[in-house]
Amino acid sequence: MIRLNNIKIKENLSNEEVLKFAIKKFHINPIDVLEWHISRKSIDARKKDDICFNYSIDLKVQNEHKYKQFAKVVQFEMPKINIKNNFSSNPVIVGAGPGGLFAAITLVQSGIKPIIVEQGDTVENRLKDVEAFQKSGKLNRFSNVQFGEGGAGTFSDGKLTTGIHSPYCQKVLQDFAYFGAPEEILYLAKPHIGTDNLIEILKNMRKYIISNGGQFLFNTKVTDFVIENNHIKSIKIENVITNKISELKTNHLILAIGHSSRDTFKKLYECGFAIEKKNFSVGVRIEHLQQWINEAQYGTNPTLKLPPAEYKLAYHSKSGRSCYTFCMCPGGYVIASSSEAGTIVTNGMSKFARDGLNANSAVLVNIVPEDFSSDSPLAGMYFQQDLEEKAFALGGSNYYAPIQRLGDFMKNVTSEKVGIVKPTYAPGVTLANLNEILPQFISETLKEGISYFGKKVKNFSNPDSILTGLETRSSSPIRIVRNEKLVSNICGVYPCGEGAGYAGGIMSAAVDGIKCAIALLED
What we know:
The chain is of the alpha+beta class and about 525 residues long. The protein has helices at about 15-25, 100-110, 125-135, 170-180, 195-210, 260-270, 290-300, 380-395, 405-410, 440-455, 505-520, and strands at about 1-10, 35-45, 50-60, 70, 90-95, 115, 215, 220-230, 230-240, 245-250, 255, 275, 280-290, 315, 320-330, 335, 345-350, 360-365, 400-405, 430, 465-470, 480, 495. It has three domains: about 1-70, Alpha-Beta Plaits (2-Layer Sandwich); about 90-275 and about 475-520, FAD/NAD(P)-binding domain, CATH 3.50.50; about 280-470, no CATH class. Helices cover about 25% and strands about 25% of the residues. The chain has a seven-stranded mixed beta sheet. A hairpin with a 5-residue loop joins strand 9 and strand 10. The longest helix has 17 residues, at about 195-210.
């Protein structure tokens, strides 16, 4: 396999047309091409008057000796796993987010039959609960944007980008494509799936796991951990619909809990699990017209048909704080993401087409343990919760979110109306002054950062931009300590993914799920 790089295309072509262009450019004999696929596609928009697509293509060729000038490609293969344990009881996975699901897939592919415990519902029932919350403010605290099959990332843009460099990233992409994701995620520089696609993909994952012997216990909450001689022996579970309590024996437990699993955090701390405070971030959701972002990134008259534009921005204040954008959703919506009564939590989501009128992203400021009010490992969780309760009070009632025009936020005055940018948050919004509930260091850093971002992306700091409060769940406020074999201080327990403090998004959580499953199999 050889790779052709730096294939610049300045018109909209099919993949087959790109191949013809490439083999002609690099003098490849078409007869020698046995197989091919696009390995990468990105947009080069550094020059607004000369935007182009940049491709890389991998070719399997005969007479490979004729093409020594091209780099050879080594394709990723899963390493052979040495299963050392006969498993007297089924391994149990707590949480059916990306970490838990990819751990389950890895186990069933190795002939092991895990039990997946998820306090939320199946993705199709979960969708009904989320829609009911958006329409009426009726919150199901067990099945919502945070909890349920697929985890918090189900209601997002479905980004598969990550800052980690792991060979397992390619397996995650391949598995997503196998379960129904668009093939382009295998080669786009910034792949995404979208909430609408994720819902169907998750159903296919569930069917695959069950067909290979796995078992799901939905609407089932872990209430306690039974530990003997510092080793996990069982977990106690409760069906949240029938309130039936039972015990599930296991010697191997993957804790793939999400970043909002506060009841479980408390129980783990009570049971003696080693937990550390960690940094996280807090801020707001900002909404712009998607047209503004397109024009800022592509210019006003691009010749190519381009997808909705994105951005990723960071600012470092003289105070030592950082401000950055996170989970940018082109053509997306700000979504109500509460999982506890009397709190407001926001997030962003997009459908695969990204065809909404607005763009949104989180604008966040870093929080460090020194900001917390106590030395408890759970102090960061209480910091988040306090802000969410204040946002609920400022929003009024029925889970209305407090919003503010950016221009008013900068002036520290309550907004009296919205401008050209209309808020997308449902169930509804209340005009407010977000400065009243944000700690001053967050407000001031946000103002500095947004002003700076306006110099990088035109209209980012437009006064009519809408701020929705608050975004508090960008990552877990704790880390469940694990050793080099990925085991916690309680033997047989593998803290996994975002909630355990080892991931930050769908891709990194999925990769961590694979790693934890392999560690379990080789234990």
